[in-house]
Each structure stands twice: as structure tokens, then as C-alpha cells.
Amino acid sequence: MYGRGGSPEDLLFNTANWFRVSEAQRQKMDQAISSKSGDQLLNTSTEDLARYYADEFSIDVPVIDQEGVTVDQREAQIDVSHDHSRYFSDRSGPHYITGTAVDVEVPFSGDAEVFKVQPTTHTMNPPRGHVTKGVFRFTIQGTNLTPEKVQEAIKSRLSSVDQYLEWLRGTATPFNATLYGIAVANIEGRKQKLLSDRNLVAGLGFKMRERPGAATTYAAPSVRRKITPRPPAASTAAYKPEPVLQDAEYQNILSVLDNMVKVMELSPGAFSKIDEESLRMHFLVQLNSQYEGSATGETFNFQGKTDILIKEAGRNIFIGECKFWKGDKAHLETLDQLLSYSSWRDTKASVLIFNRNKDFSSVLEKLQESTLKHPNCKKLISQRSETSWMYLFSQPDDANREMTVTVQAYNVPEHVEPRIRTL
């Protein structure tokens, strides 16, 4: 294949520096968070908003579809002045002859702008081509093309592009993984500042002045690359702070429950025939000894009744359920029941699962799988122990109202009375 002709192809992966591009993305995300309406920020789930921003500002390295490659051929005027196998008396200008051009189109998914970015690892001869939205094009041309030569040239070009994209993917993947954590820190930091500022103004004793021209509706921001991601829905109403059970108190409640189970394990005979209602009473005694009787049993609330409640201003701030393991379906129904009782924005809950089956390991595995499959389970926050996990849930009617649910499993096999030998 010899000769030149047609419009010159673009030099790819050679315009933008990776470090500048990644830093610019990070700064754009920071700016988006800092410029979001304060009320909308406070009314929106940190988890959902952080995932939206992390997705929105991630660098979407293209993936080329080699199975979808299409080709077409045409006649083309080829400049053969640089073909040293040909004799020209004057090589000062181009010499054109009619040759053949094969136009290649390669579909891809991802951000077309990434084809401009130079990876941290690169060669001195990056690939060339034309990139538009969703399609990468290049041309193979010459005066003596054969199917074998064209096929080899296409394969070589695609291999070179793939190598550059893989180099970029090697740095983009860990970069994208950091965005969620950065977004969470920025969102939480701004929320704390907003609440602190509002408490400052509220403490002055004067009326709040409405700002002229303040937005009363919210228009979704334009998306750079694709229809998704979409920002989570946020209320434009003024944010109203709600009571929050402090994490330290929540952890203490969980410890009280853990300690009560240890008592049960030390005296299995005393609890071998106990039912769920009696179990609840034992836990209530321990909670009331530390929380001045604020925990109550069999308290009707919304769609039914739950086992253990701690209330604030007449609404649930902590919810606990004691259940014997009866399978995945029963566990999911328990989670539904918990969600129906949730009142405040940051309600905390605990599900105590007691196992009387022999295969406790299998129960633990099913417990984790079924909890994560619940439609309102957003993520596993942490694993507290081999038999205890903390999850983040959203309420069924409002994704911005979230609930921390700790699932605690305990093995309490039925006590078997020893047989008395008679002589």
C-alpha cells in the first residue's frame, strides 16, 4: 500500500493531558456540589446525590465494537510522489494517480472526548482517525490493495486504538472510584455548614428575609454524555431539621442487645422454649434500665405494631424487631414492616434474628443475600461481626428519607434436657 490522498486524519490521544483532565473533572464536581440549592441539598439523600455526581463526572473511556465494523470502498486520487519505487523527474510537487480507498467505520460506546486525552503511558506514534459521537472512522488506501493487506491494516489500527484506550482505562478506573468518596465528603461538609449557618441566623432573633428572585422550581442540569445519570429528585421546600439518634447512642443500643444475647447463650435452658413476645420483654427490660423507660413494647404505629420502639416527639427514632428465622420471605416481610414504621428522616433500626435450625452458616448466607435483594436496600454500610451487618435503606415513599438497619443474627438452638438413667 503506497501513496497519500484525501483529507489528513486527526492525530488521536494527543490533545489533552490526563492529569489536567482528571483534575478538571474533580473541580467541576466540587463546583456542582457547592452551587446546588441549599434546601435541595439538605432535602436530598447524601448517598443518592453522591452516586449521581460520581457517575456524572466519571471519565467514560470508550469501548470499541470490533464486531460492528463496517467497510466501504471507492476510487481515490493517491499522491505517489513519496513512493521511491517510482521515478519522477520532478519531486517538488504531488503526483496523483487513481487508486482505491477503503473507508472503515467502528462503532463505540463511551465519551468521544476521551479520544483526545493522552494517557500517562503512550508512544511517539499515536493512531489517527476521525471521531464523532459513537463512531470512529479511518481510511486504508493505496494503488495495489489486496484483501489480506486491508485486513491486516484494519487489525493493526484497531489494535493501536485499543491499546491507548486500555492505558486510559488503567488510570480512569481508580480515578472514578475516588469520586464517590469525594462527593460524600463535600456534600456532608456543605450540609453541616448550611445547618450551622441557619442555626446562627435563627439565634439572632430576627425574621428571615426572602431573597428576591430565589428559584422556586428545579430544572435538571444538562448531561454531558448520555441521558443517564439523572439527579435524584429533591424537594424545593425549606429544609426542616429533625431529631437524630446519635451514632454513639445507636451503637450503645446495639451493644445492649448483643449483651442480652450473651446472657441467653450462657443459660440456654432458660430460653429454650421462649417465644418472640417473651424475647422482646427481656430486651425491653435491659433498654429501659438505661433509657429511662423510653422504650415501649407492642406499640401500635402506622400500619401495625412493632417489638421495640424509642420515641422522640411522638415519633419513632429507633425501631427493633425480634424474629425467629423462618426463611427469606419472612425476613423480607420483616424489613417491609420496619420501613412502614419509620417516621423521621434518619430513623435507626435493628432486626434480631434467632436461629433454631442446625445449619447456622447457611442461615447467615441467606440472611445477607435476601437483605441486599430488598428493593429499598441501598448498600451495605459495614459488617459489624461475623453475624451482624449494617445497611442503608430508603423509605418506600421517599428515597431521600433513609434508614439505618442493623441485622443481627444469633444461634439459639433448642435446649435438650439430659436423659436421667435409671438403675
Q: How would you explain this protein's 3D organization?
A:
The chain has 423 residues and is an alpha+beta fold. The chain folds into two domains: 10-179, no CATH class; 247-411, no CATH class. Helices cover 38% and strands 26% of the residues. Strands 9-10-11-12-15-14-13 form a seven-stranded mixed sheet, sandwiched between helices. Strands 1, 3, 4, 5, 7 and 8 form a six-stranded antiparallel sheet that branches. It has a two-stranded parallel ribbon with strand order 2-6. It is elongated. Residues 1-7, 203-211, 213-229, 298-303 and 416-423 have low confidence and may be disordered.
What attributes does this structure have?
seven-stranded mixed sheet, 423 residues, 15 strands, single chain, disordered N terminus, 38% helix, alpha+beta, 2 domains, six-stranded antiparallel sheet, disordered C terminus
Total helix count?
9
Outline the low-pLDDT stretches. Answer: 1-7, 203-211, 213-229, 298-303, 416-423
- What is the beta-strand fraction? 25-35%
Structural class call reads: alpha+beta
The H/E string reads EEHHHEEEEEEHHHHEEEHEHEEE
As laid out across the biggest beta sheet, the strand order is: 9-10-11-12-15-14-13
C-alpha Rg, in Å? Answer: 32 Å
What is the averaged pLDDT score? 79
Shape: elongated
Total number of β-strand segments? Answer: 15
Largest sheet: 7 strands, mixed
Instruction: Quickly count the domains.
Output: 2
Spell out the blueprint of helices and strands:
Elements: E1 10-11, E2 16-17, H1 18-35, H2 38-43, H3 46-56, E3 63-64, E4 70-79, E5 96-109, E6 117-118, E7 128-132, E8 135-142, H4 147-202, H5 247-266, H6 268-271, H7 276-291, E9 295-301, E10 304-312, E11 315-324, H8 328-341, E12 346-355, H9 360-373, E13 377-385, E14 388-395, E15 398-411
Parallel strand pairs: 2-6, 11-12, 12-15
Antiparallel strand pairs: 1-7, 3-5, 4-5, 5-8, 7-8, 9-10, 10-11, 13-14, 14-15
